[in-house]
Amino acid sequence: MASVLNVRYLSWQNLKESRTRFDWNAVAANKVSDMSKERITRLPIDWYNMDSKNYWRNQDTFVSVDEIAKVVELAVNDWNQVLSTSKRTKYLIFMPWEQYNNQIVGFKSACAIAKMLGRTLVLPHLGYKNPNQSLSRPFSDTDFVPSEFIWHPFEHYYDLTHLSKHLPCSFTTFDNFHSLNDGQTLRRVRYHHLGDKKTSERQLRDYYQNIARLQFNSIEYDMSAYFHLSAAEIMDLHADDDTQVLALGSLFWYYNFGILPPVKYPATEYRDYMHVEIYRRVTDSLVFVDRVQQRAAHALDGIVGVVAGNGFVAVHIRRGDYKEKCDELPIGLLERCATTLPYIRNYLKYKFPNTIQRNFLYISTNANKSEVSEIAAELGQDWGRVFFQNDLEDVRNASFLESWNSDGIESCMFDQLICAKAAYFIGNMYSSFTRHIIDIRGVSNSLLF
C-alpha cells in the first residue's frame, strides 16, 4: 500500500515476550475450551484453539526507547535525503554465506567495514539449510545454495534493544531498508571469489534476487580482493564507491581487524580477536533473544543438579562435510582438524586424569545418529555421564521439540550457550562454531584439539 500510494513507510515490532503484559483474567472469563492455563500461556501458540489465540492477542506492549530511536533516526535521515540528495543515507548490504557460524563471522567484518566507510549496515538475513530440501540436485553438496535455506531477519535471533545500544556501526533492519528502497534497482553487486565450490556468481544472483528481493544491473568482480584485507586495502576498494547501496558478496573474514602478522593457511595457532576493540564491541552486542536464553538456562539448571557443583566439561566435535575440508590439510594438522574418536578419548583422558573431573561430559556435535551412538559408547567408558542436546530434560518435552527442531540456528545457539557455561571447554581450532563459543566465554579454561 505504501508503495502504491508513494508513502515512505517504516515499522517497529515488539519481539520480546518479556516486554509484553498479558491479561489472563480476560481469557479465563471467556474460556471456550478445556485447555489448561499452563498450556495456554506457553509457546507455541495453538492456532486451532481459541483460548490460546485469545491469550496471545490480549496483550499490552512496552515500547523500547532504544529501538524506536533507531527507527526515528532512520526516518529523519530519510527525510533529509528527500530534501537534499547530498545528505542521502549510504548503505552497506552483503550476502550471508554458508552456515550460521560463517554468517556471523561475515557480519562482524560487515559492521567494522560499514563504520570504516561511514555507511549504514543493513542487518542481514540469517539462515539454515532446509531439512526437508531434496538432496538430489545437479551440483555438489558442498555448494552453498541460498534458495535451499530457510531465512529469518537478524532480529529474530539477536536482541534488537542490545544491538541498538551497543552495535558500534549505524544499522537498519532489512525490512525498513527494503521499505525505503522498494522498487529501486541496485547499480551493481560487487563480487570477490573465494574459490571453487565456495563462492560463485550464481550464489549472488540467487541471494539478491530470490531472498533479498533486490534487482541489480550488473555484477562487477573485485579481482584483487580475497579475505583478511587490511583497512587500507578496504578503503582503496570501497571508499570512493559513490553508489547509495554498496552491495557485496560474502564478507567471511573479509577484514583482518588489524591482526598482525597476516593470517596464513593452514593455521597453526588460534588467533584471539577479542582484544581488538571493534571486534569485541560487535561481539558483545550480539545477545541472543530471550527464548533461546531461557531454554539454555532451563537446561543448565538441570545440569547443575546432576554435577552437584563440580562443574562440567563440554566438547565440540565437528562432523558432516568438515572431513572434506580437513583433508586439504597436511599430516600433523589433519588429526587436529578431523578428530577421530580414539584421538578425542585419549586427549580427554590426558587433560582430565582425575576421575572426579570426568563426571559429566556434554557433547556439542552435528554428527548423525549412528555417529552419536558411537561417540556416547566410546567416551562413556571414561565418563560418568555423556550428554547431547537431545538428552537434556527440556528437549525431551514433545511441545518443546515441535518448535525447537525446526530451527537449525536456535539449536546452534543453544549448544553455544551450554558450552560457554562449562567449567572447561574443548573445541576445534579450525571451526567458526568453536570460535563463537570462545568469544562468549573467553580463552580461560578453553582448550583446543
Automatic annotation (TrEMBL):
Pathway terms, separated by semicolons: Protein modification; protein glycosylation
GO MF annotations in UniProt: peptide-O-fucosyltransferase activity
Keyword terms, alphabetized: Carbohydrate metabolism, Endoplasmic reticulum, Fucose metabolism, Transferase
CDD domains given in the database record: O-FucT_like
Main localization category: endoplasmic reticulum
One Pfam family here: O-FucT
Alphabetical list of InterPro entries matching this protein: GDP-Fuc_O-FucTrfase (IPR019378), OFUT2-like (IPR045130)
PANTHER family per UniProt: GDP-FUCOSE PROTEIN O-FUCOSYLTRANSFERASE 2
Family: Belongs to the glycosyltransferase 68 family.
UniProt protein name: GDP-fucose protein O-fucosyltransferase 2
Higher taxonomy: Eukaryota, Fungi, Fungi incertae sedis, Chytridiomycota, Chytridiomycota incertae sedis
